[in-house]
Amino acid sequence: MRPLGGSGKPPAMSDESDVEKKLREERHQKGVKLAELGVNPYGTGLRPEHLTAEIHARHEHDTPEALEAAKPGPYSIAGRVVSVRDFGKAGFIMVQDRAGALQVHVKKDVLGDQAFAPYKLLDLGDFVFVRGTAFRSKTGELTLAATEYRPLTKTLRPLPGKFSAEVKLSPEQAERVKAAVAAVNAATSAVEDAAARHQVSEETIAAQQALLKDDPVAAKALPHAVAKAWAEKQALHDTEERYRRRYVDLLSNPGVKETFIKRTKLVQFIRSFLDARGYLEVETPMMHPLVSGAAARPFKTHHNAYDVPLFMRIAPELYLKRLVVGGFDRVYEINRNFRNEGVSTRHNPEFTMLEFYEAYATYHDLMDLTEEMISAAAVHVTGSVKVKYGDHLIDFSKGWPRIPMRQAIAERVKELTEKDFGDVERLRAIALRKAESPADKAAIATMNVGELTALLFEQYVEHELINPTFITEFPVENSPLARRSDANPAVTDRFELFCMGREIANAFSELNDPVDQEQRFRSQVDAKARGQQETMDYDADYIRALEHGMPPTAGEGIGIDRLCMLFTDAQSIRDVILFPLLRPQTSK
RNA sequence: GGGAGCGUAGCUCAAUUGGCAGAGCAAUGGACUCUUAAUCCAUAGGUUGAAGGUUCGAUUCCUUCCGCUCUCACCA
Q: Torsions phi, psi of A116, nearest 5?
């Protein structure tokens, strides 16, 4: 047997306490003892043939007697041990795999001394392989009677808190069980003494079970639910630790796994939705020689062999439109953008964006498409077209309002009519009312009509848009890549989608006039020369591409992280990003 | 970058006006072959984020620093 670790000691960590060292050393020693028993604590080559969920599904309705007669199996499972209830010469352990968890009954007289000895060296969190037949324990729980028990991986660090198996319930059952759990917790939390508390807890659980006796499933689920409530209370709550050690967060807080499964389902849904409509998924450069496609400050990097500076992309837009020029007239990309700006509950420096372009479509067509896609995504991901977010219930049912920006402002600022949007000073005066800092006032003093209109929208309208709403007719000044409206050259054929007071999507009929585009690039370059940092560079090759002709095209960008927040009731973008950017830890 | 708040055992949390740092879970030793927060007996576990200051005495008050959370600004 290969000795454990190079030096025979667990790896040293500079920032850990003596307690942590001791816990790890104790576990390490159990691994050493396993090796002495002839079991490699980091062995390999044992593949389970079944998932815990499969075994549950297969025997869900089987009675204890039927299982006793049939002795179905043998089944083999592998997973992490998330609870242990030991009785000396026997024990119950809960083994969790990717699909769920199953209880295992380990008995010395069945396994024999040699196979039972490794079980006595088990720690919570270790991985094991078990083979056995299914039966129901006296409490009715489906359990694997182990005929083979093999340790797979020794864990050196304890997991935080407690763990509990998931029990599947209908929403109605879940509500009833939840109320019963609250009653149990209320009754037991008042008791100080541990033994007495257990007594009170058992009595209260029994009493609550009696109340649920018309619903055997709910009654049976109650003890599990009490355990789960307890486990959740004990789980890792420290926000920083949760983000820094997401692997622990995922194990410890059950809802976290659900959130990220929903995120994956959302992205898969969007791909299949667009694929089904003839869109081609492509990948365009993440490292750009120029800053383009959005108004934002970039990250800078450098390529050694060419000795050239590069920017991490702030948007893929101009590359995707080059592809439309090249004949890919329905394309999309789901990938990361990088913007060198502050972090907040709604901003991570790298974030995931869907961008898609469809030739011969207009921004009106994209409103139809967006409505179709997001309302269907809501149902696919959350199971309902009405989605709970915080205290709100957002209704994604199709038929979202489409309101021109000026109208939306005029509806809320009574003294403004739509005609007043030509009057710079009038707009300025109204914008100044909401300006607080001297810096804001100074900025407002130099704004033009379009900029003031956009500002008034942010001040008076944006935060009020709870249910999905399209805002159209954006001013041309802050839409450097959008096509001018034929009816009014001051505005563009553009919309943004708002939901919960936040921008979710941004789309427009693309500017495909190379002459107009060149002028707008020049005004961006001028703005940069005046000191404005969030501007685009002049992209001569993009102009050249437009000169080859881009068909009339509409394009859209959707912030996947923010959409995901809405579908998972997440209050922070960090709750939908597996590894959000945090300041590197210098000392613990 | 500005403002507010937080940081106590591996985890979740206490600690009265500034007066002996505590509990549950996890851990360790022991008992127990149908448990569901298993139970019972025993044991151990702390530089109270870091440094400094005030004080007879600091988890508590003050200063600085580190980190996080919220919020404002920039932005999607």
A: -80, -30
Please state, in angstroms and rounded to a whole number, the distance separating the CA atoms of residues A394 and A374.
12
- The model's pLDDT over A325-340, given as tens digits with 9 standing for 90+, comes to 999 999 999 999 999 8
Q: Whose CA is nearest the C1' atom of nucleotide B2?
A: A437
SS3 content of chain A, % helix, strand, coil (to 5): 45, 20, 35
Distance A86 CA to B48 C1' (A): 35
Provide the β-strand partners of residue A510.
A482
Task: Identify the DSSP state of A484.
Answer: B
Length A417 CA → B8 C1' (Å): 60
Q: How deeply is A564 buried, as exposed, middle or buried, from its count of CB atoms within 10 A (0-12, 13-18, 19+)? A: buried
Residue type, A532: Q
Asked whether the beta carbons of A552 and A509 are under 8 A apart, the reply is yes
Would you state the pLDDT for residue A505? 93
| Spatial distance from the CA of A19 to the C1' of B61 (Å) | 31
Percent of chain A with pLDDT over 70: 90
Does ipTM surpass 0.95 in this model?
no
Structure tokens at A18: 């003596």
- Bases of chain B with protein Cβ within 7 A: 1, 9-13, 23-28, 31-41, 45-47, 49, 66-76
CB A550 within 8 A of CB A321: yes
How is chain A split into domains, by residue range? 18-153, 171-235, 257-400+467-575
* Contact predicate A28/A6, CB 8 Å: no
A314: nt with nearest C1' to CA: B76
Residue whose tokens read 């996947």: A560
Instruction: Specify which residue's alpha carbon is closest to the C1' of nucleotide B33.
Output: A90
Q: Nearest residue to B70 (CA, C1')?
A: A345
Q: Which residue lies nearest B49, CA-to-C1' measured?
A: A588
**pTM (predicted TM-score):** 0.87
Q: In what order do the strands lie in the sheet with A553-559?
A: A280-281, A330-338, A350-359, A553-559, A502-509, A494-499, A469-472, A402-404
Question: Do A474 and A295 form a contact (C-beta atoms < 8 A)?
Answer: no
- What pLDDT shows up at residue A99? 86
Protein A16 CA to nucleic acid B58 C1', in Å?
25
Nucleotide nearest to A346 (CA to C1'): B76
CATH (one of 3.10.310.30, 3.30.930.10, 3.20.20.70, 3.40.50.300) for A257-400+467-575: 3.30.930.10
Among A324, A326, A322, A314, smallest CA distance to A290 is for A314
DSSP-derived pairing of the beta strands A502-509 and A494-499: antiparallel
Classify domain A18-153 by CATH number.
Answer: 2.40.50.140
A49 CA to B36 C1' in angstroms comes to 26
Distance in Å, residue A162 CA to nucleotide B12 C1': 10
